[in-house]
Amino acid sequence: MQISRYSAPEFDPYGDTRQTDTDDGWLAPVATGPLAAVLSLPGSKSLTNRELVLAALADGPSLLRTPLWSRDSELMVEGLRALGTRFERVAGAGGFGDDLVVTPAEELTGSTTIDCGLAGTVMRFLPPVAALALGPTTFDGDEYARKRPMSGVVEGLRGLGVDLDDDGRGTLPFTVHGTGRVAGGPLEIDASASSQFVSALLLSAARFERGLDLRHRGERVPSAPHIEMTVATLAARGVAVAEPEPGRWVVEPGRIRALDVDIEPDLSNAAPFLIAALVAGGSVTITGWPRTTTQVGAQLADLLPRFGARVELAGDRLTVHAPEPGADGGRGIRGVDLDLSEAGELAPNLVGLAAVAESPSIITGIGHIRHHETDRLAALAAEINGLGGRVTELDDGLRIEPARLHGGPWRAYADHRMATTGAIVGLAVPGVVVDDIGTTSKTLPQFPELWERLRS
221 and 149 in contact (C-beta within 8 Å)? Predict the structure, then answer.
C-alpha cells in the first residue's frame, strides 16, 4: 500500500531531514472478530545472548537448545566467532531453528572488528570479553548505536586498567586493546543509564585475575530484573555473585562451568500477541510459559489485568482473555497508572494498548528508554499523535489520553518495539502502515507471520 505526502511530526530521533514520502510499508492487519489463538514463540534474546557469552568463556563446550535466531543473537555469535569461539549448528526440536554447540577458544584473540548493529547486549557485553583477548578489537554499529550510552562499560574497563581508545567520545566506535588478561578488583561505575553496564562486567568477572567487587553510584539502576537474570545464569554455571548490600556485586575469580541449557521462550516478545486479545477481543494463549523465570516479560501476567484483562496460567500455557465490553459497546480497556521502572522494555507495547483504552493512562519510570534503540518516549508520542492521539511526554514517562485514532503511516525508527507497537495500534485502527516491519528481525524474525496467524 502506498502512502504519500503526509505531514510528519517535527521529532526525529536520528536527527535526519524528514521525508514527506514513504515507500511501500506493511499494512497492519485489522481485527475482524474475536481471537482464539494459540502460539509458541522462539527463545529469549536476553537469555540467549547471556548464555552465548558465558558459553564462550566456559571451561568446555556447551549446548544451547532452542536459542533465538535473530539479528541481535547472530551479531553476538559473529562477534564471539571473531574472538576465536567456535560454533556448530545442530538440528533442534523446537521448531524455530537449530540448536547451537559453543566451543570456547583455547586463547581469545583480538585484532578484529565487531559489528554491534543496534544490539545493546553486543555493544556492552563483548568489550569485557575483548579485554580478555590478545590484540585490539574495534567496536562499531549502526548509525543510532553511536548515540546509545556506553559510559558504564567504557569507564568500567578503564577503571580495571584496560586500554580503551574512544577519542574521548564515551560511545561507539572504540577500540579495546586486549592483553589477554584483566586484573579485576574493586570498581565503581554509574549504571543509572542501563542495567546492561552491570551485567556486562559481571558476565566476564570470574575470568578476571582478582574477580570483581562492583559498586553502583548514582540514581537507581533501571530494569533491575535483568541483573537478576545475569546473576541466575552465572549461578547455574557455578559462579556465585554475592550482593552484600544494594548496588554492590562481588564475584570471586574462578572457572565458568560448561553447561547444556534450554532457552526459555521470549516473554517480552509475547507482549504484542497477548495485548492483541484485549484489542481484538477473545483470547490468546502462549505455550511454553515458565512457572518461574527471571524474564521481565513475566510481569505481563500482573500488568494486563490492570487494563481489564483476565489472565490464567494452566501448566505451561498462559492465556489472556479480553475485558468485558463496556456499557457503550467499547472494548472495555481501562486506563492505568503504572511505574514500569523494572520493565521498561514492555513500555512501548503497553503504551500502544493505552492509546486505544477508554480512560487516561500515565506510565512512568521509563525515562531510560529514551536511550534504547531510539528515543522511545519521543517516538511513541510522535507516532500516536500523528494518528490523532493525545500523548504528552513527561520527564520519565508518558501521559496517554483517549482519542479517536485514524489510519496513516507509522515509523519504526529501526526499533523492533516501535514496529510491534504499530501493529498493535493497527489491529484497532484501519489503515496503519508500518514503514519497516522487517526491523522486528532484531529479536523476532517471525513476527509478521505470527501476527497474521493470530486471525487464522
Answer: no
> From the candidates 345, 358, 373, 401, which is the catalytic residue?
345
Angle at 196 between CA 192 and CA 197, to 5 degrees: 65
Residue 138 shares a structural domain with residue 284 = no
442 marked as binding residue: yes
- Is residue 417 marked as binding? yes
Instruction: State pTM to two decimals.
Output: 0.91
User: Do 289 and 164 share a domain, yes or no?
Assistant: no
Radius of gyration in angstroms for the set of CA atoms belonging to the chain, rounded to a whole number: 22
Q: Is position 345 annotated in a ligand binding site?
A: yes
Is residue 19 a part of any domain in this protein?
Answer: no
CA–CA separation, 394 and 412 (whole Å): 21
Is residue 449 annotated as part of the catalytic site, yes or no? no
Q: Give first-to-last CA distance, the chain, whole Å.
A: 22
Q: Are residues 301 and 418 in the same domain?
A: yes
Q: What is the pLDDT of residues 287-304, one digit of tens each?
A: 999 999 999 999 999 999
Q: What is the pLDDT of residues 365-399, one digit of tens each?
A: 999 999 999 999 999 999 999 999 999 999 999 99
Residue 366 in any domain: the answer is yes
Residue 46 marked as a ligand binder: yes
Strands (E), 92-251: 99-103, 112-115, 134-140, 163-165, 174-179, 185-189, 212-216, 241-242, 248-251
DSSP conformation letters of 427-456? HHSTTEEETTGGGGGGT-TTHHHHHHHTT-
Cα(447)–Cα(441) distance, integer angstroms: 8
Question: Does the annotation list 195 as a binding residue?
Answer: yes
Q: For the segment 210-250, what is each residue's pLDDT rounded down to a tens digit?
A: 999 999 998 889 899 999 999 999 999 999 999 999 999 99
Asked whether residue 56 falls in the same domain as residue 164, the answer is yes
The C-alpha angle with vertex 233 and arms to 178 and 340, in degrees rounded to 5, equals 100
| 201 and 271 belong to one structural domain | no
Domain total of the chain: 2
Shared-domain flag, residues 200 and 302: no
- Tell whether 147 is in a known binding site: no
- Rounded to 10°, the helix 271-280/347-354 angle is 10
Q: What domain range includes position 449?
A: 26-41+265-453
